[in-house]
Amino acid sequence: MDAINSAAPVVTVGSVRFGNDLPLSVIAGPCQLESRIHALEVATALKEIASRLNIGLVYKTSFDKANRTSASAARGLGLEQSLPIFAEIRSSLGLPVLTDIHEATQCAEVAQAVDILQIPAFLCPDRPLAGCGCNRQGRQRQKGAVSGALGHGQCRD
Fold first, then answer.
1. pTM
2. Tens of pLDDT along 4-28?
3. In sequence order, what are the residues at sequence separation of 6 or more whose Cβ sits closer than 8 angstroms to the Cβ of residue 6?
4. Domains, the chain, ranges and CATH?
5. Does residue 20 contact residue 29 with C-beta atoms inside 8 Å?
6. Which of 36, 57, 87, 90 is the most buried (most CB within 10 A)?
7. Is 104 in contact with 128 (CB distance < 8 Å)?
């Protein structure tokens, strides 16, 4: 292994590991949380597929898709209804869970139910969100079309 590869970070979220020299792991799920039943069905199906393919999986869905082009478009279940669903997916299926947050005031509460907090690309310039979740949970900050996963307790942009 050369010096570049040996310095490559490994990010661990639950039992899922991401790294250049590791087998493939993915972050996957529906764009928005539509219902408990839908979320459990999708998470179960994704878990079965990931297991069959022997790849790691982090389940991702959003409780509020605020970046819609139409104000009348569906946005998700909202924070209060979604947190118990995230916690159920994590505990009953054993999957790490990722969701996005839109306000710094959401960080502590959401971090209790999920493993990774994501800052959506359209909110990346929002400095109050930049440090959100760093002390306890993983954080993922989208940079346009490119996303970088961040591990537990690590704060990198």
1. 0.75
2. 555 678 999 999 999 998 999 999 9
3. none
4. 3-149 (3.20.20.70)
5. no
6. 57
7. yes
